[in-house]
Design a protein that fits this description.
about 725 residues; five-stranded antiparallel sheet; two-stranded antiparallel sheet; extended
Length: about 725
């Protein structure tokens, strides 16, 4: 007689108790079974029948596992293991070990599950119990399928089928379901459906209503895979009704969310609303908040109803509860960003869009890690099997050759010691050489990084020159970089805004003016990315301060002074000398003339001064270039190479490069993050006629200084940057 049948016979023969019968009868209704099995255990806790007491706790653990209460199921197993005399029979150990394996499997701990299932298989085989061995083979097939070992999983299922038939075991429904899952993973929909239908019929014959509902859910998933939505809808509704009748509320919530998602995709909002309300009622009965999937579908329905406020509330609540690795978190963040945009919260939408992109990347990384973990488990299991086989073969070989090698042990030990010492010495020398090479490489890379930082800093706006130009005017003058941040201001501007220098510098001018003024400034700054700007606009103070209005002239600085614009505030409507690009060039030529007059006695100094003037003028007004200009082509190639190096090293894109380097502007365009200025330098057809070579070089130097690149990639990027720098010097001398 099978060990499992012996245990069942002893339990039923030991006591004719209605509490025990109720615990057995309610296994298809897990919520009620938890209470019934605990009551049966408490009623017989003092009995000497350890098998009966353990049986009640194991049944309680099964019910808790069915409701998803993994921690409670583990506590029940620990209580069963602690019972006196529970480990006297091998079958008690088998049942405990098998359920611990099932618990590990449900938690995603597949390596532990495989170890437990193999132990139970060997235990059943050692005691000649074909029925128990068949169950363990089936458990092994499930674990192997989850880690992607489909061939081994099929072999395990076939072995289980053979053992169950040898033991005349009629409970084959679970095995047929597992075979259906396996063939669905292998994209064989026809074979998978056949096994599911066989499992459905076997479960119905045995009266296993809960298993019938789970199989119907599997058939619905298969129907969705083959785009048969009507069949999937029918199976899901049947499963939902079964779960509701059995009190399996957690399963009911899951199916309700799936039905709602499918109906929303079919634009059947009435059916979707009914499914969501059903899931909400089940959640209230369990006294738990909405699951992430159900909350996501409820928020989508609220947006369809134009109730963005309610959708925002649902999303905020569920996002405060889900973890960083929750699969639905990416979809929740994306929908919340759309909801914030619809509510007009542009700043929140921008932040949420960034968080969504980060979460999406993290989810892809987690999926990659999960696949790596599957491969690692497969490798570990294969290594353990290989190690066991290798040890067995080695033991047999040692048993046969022990006498022959007895006289060689001393020589072998001495030789081994010598080899070990030699390997230690060689390894020490190798590590020492590697350490010295690493120190030299790090020192060289640190020097290069500092050099590139200095080179990037040298290409930034010449603050002293710009500040000197601003201080020469009595008008209120403010210099802005491409991000609208204040990089220089004269005393009149500081007094006008009632700010000290430390408060004003580095802050966006948008903080000190109203929204319309900020929008006009942003438009002019965007135009300055393509051409020189010389316009007059109206500026008003921000609503937080006293209302005030000025006329302001916005003028691009010359390329020699860096990529910046100057805002000249005409206080109280008064006119002043227009601070224009031509005005800047006139002043610089005046300065150059003064240097020539001072250095007239020294011809060498005169020649040097003339050369600097020619260089300044050449950089201020570079010659026009067509699409065949080598300089423009080299700038595009450098920008493309820089972005490619950044993406390869950091696994991020152009937006992250713009934000980290602080060289390029990042803007929201139709709800998307864009870096328009940078994108123009990625194509020869789009590059401006007078390109900003400083920004391109600064970006390349930032990547060279701050990012760990492969040596070949680093050398290539440095070569292109040097070529552009040389071309700049050549153009300055033309």
């Amino acid at each position: 007689m099978s060990g499992l049948l012996v245990v069942a016979w002893r339990v039923l023969a030991a006591v004719d108790d209605p509490l025990v019968e109720r615990c057995h009868a309610l296994q298809q209704q897990p919520v009620e079974a938890i209470t019934a099995c605990e009551a049966a255990f408490q009623a017989h806790a003092s009995d000497r029948n350890a098998e009966l007491a353990q049986e009640m706790l194991l049944r309680r653990s099964d019910a808790e596992l069915a409701t998803g209460e993994f921690a409670a199921a583990e506590r029940s197993l620990d209580r069963a293991a602690a019972l006196p005399g529970a480990d006297d029979a091998w079958m008690s150990s088998y049942r405990l070990q098998r359920r611990r394996g099932i618990l590990a499997y449900r938690r995603g701990q597949f390596a532990q599950a495989l170890s437990a299932f193999r132990a139970t298989r060997d235990l059943a085989a050692a005691n000649g119990d074909a029925q128990a061995e068949g169950r363990s083979w089936n458990d092994l097939g499930n674990a192997l399928r989850r880690i992607g070992s489909y061939r081994e999983a099929l072999e395990a299922y076939l072995a289980s089928l053979q053992k169950k038939r040898d033991a005349d075991d009629s409970q084959l429904g679970a095995l047929m379901t597992n075979l259906g899952d396996l063939y669905r993973d292998l994209d064989d929909a026809t074979t998978s459906r056949d096994y599911y239908l066989k499992a459905l019929e076997l479960h119905r014959q045995r009266g296993r209503t809960l298993d019938v509902a789970h199989t119907q859910e599997s058939l619905a998933t298969l129907a969705l895979d083959t785009h048969d939505e009507d069949t999937a809808r029918d199976y899901l509704q049947r499963a939902a009704e079964t779960f509701r009748g059995l009190g399996a509320r957690s399963d009911g919530i899951r199916v309700a969310a799936r039905i709602a998602r499918m109906e929303l995709a079919r634009t059947d909002f009435v059916a979707a609303r009914a499914a969501i309300e059903d899931g909400q009622q089940l959640s209230q009965m369990l006294h738990i908040p909405l699951t992430p999937d159900l909350a996501l579908q409820a928020a989508r329905l609220a947006l369809h109803d134009d109730d963005a406020v309610r959708a925002e509330g649902l999303l905020v609540d569920v996002l405060s509860r889900v973890g960083e690795t929750t699969p639905e978190r990416v979809a929740l963040l994306k929908l919340r960003a759309e909801t914030s945009s619809r509510l007009g919260h542009a700043a929140d939408a921008y932040v949420l869009a960034l968080e969504y992109q980060q979460a999406d990347a993290a989810l892809r990384d987690a999926e990659h890690d999960r696949r790596l973990e599957q491969l690692r488990v497969r490798f570990d299991v294969a290594e353990k099997d290989r190690a066991i086989d290798s040890l067995g073969a080695e033991n047999r070989l040692q048993a046969l050759t022990l006498r022959q090698r007895a006289t060689q042990l001393a020589l072998l030990a001495a030789s081994s010691m010598l080899v070990v010492l030699l390997m230690v010495f060689v390894n020490y020398r190798r590590r020492e050489h590697a350490r010295l090479a690493a120190v030299q490489r790090e020192t060289r890379l640190a020097g290069e990084a500092e050099h590139f930082r200095q080179a990037a800093a040298a290409l930034e706006i010449d603050m002293r020159r710009v500040q000197s130009l601003l201080d020469r005017s009595d008008s209120a003058l403010i210099a802005l970089d491409s991000g609208a941040r204040v990089v220089a201001a004269n005393r009149a501007a500081i007094t006008l805004f009632s700010r000290d220098t430390t408060t004003l510098m580095g802050r966006p001018l948008d903080e000190f003016v109203d929204t319309d003024s900020a929008q006009r400034l942003s438009t002019l700054l965007a135009q300055a990315e393509d051409r020189a700007v010389d316009s007059r606009i109206t500026l008003r103070t921000s609503p937080e301060s006293a209302p005030r209005e000025w006329q302001a002239d916005v003028t691009s600085l010359s390329p020699a002074d860096g990529s910046a614009v100057v805002v000249q505030i005409l206080a109280d409507g008064a006119e002043d000398t227009h601070f224009s690009a031509s005005h800047l060039r006139h002043r610089r030529l005046q300065e150059a003339g003064a240097r020539l007059a001072t250095a007239a006695a020294d011809s060498a100094e005169v020649d040097a001064t003339i050369a600097r003037i020619e260089a300044d003028v050449a950089v201020i007004a570079p010659p026009d270039a067509d699409d065949s200009d080598p300089f423009r082509r080299e700038l595009v190639e450098l920008m493309v190479a820089t972005l490619a190096a950044w993406e390869q090293a950091t696994r991020t894109g152009a937006i992250e490069l713009a934000e980290k380097s602080r060289v390029w502007r990042v803007a929201i365009d139709d709800g998307r993050l864009r870096v328009r200025a940078m994108e123009r330098y990625l194509s020869l057809a789009k590059i401006p006629r007078h390109p900003r070579w400083r920004e391109v070089l600064r970006t390349a130097y930032y990547v060279l200084a701050e990012v760990a690149l492969e040596p070949a990639l680093r050398d290539e990027l440095r070569r292109r940057a040097d070529a552009v720098q040389a071309r700049v010097r050549q153009r300055a001398l033309v």
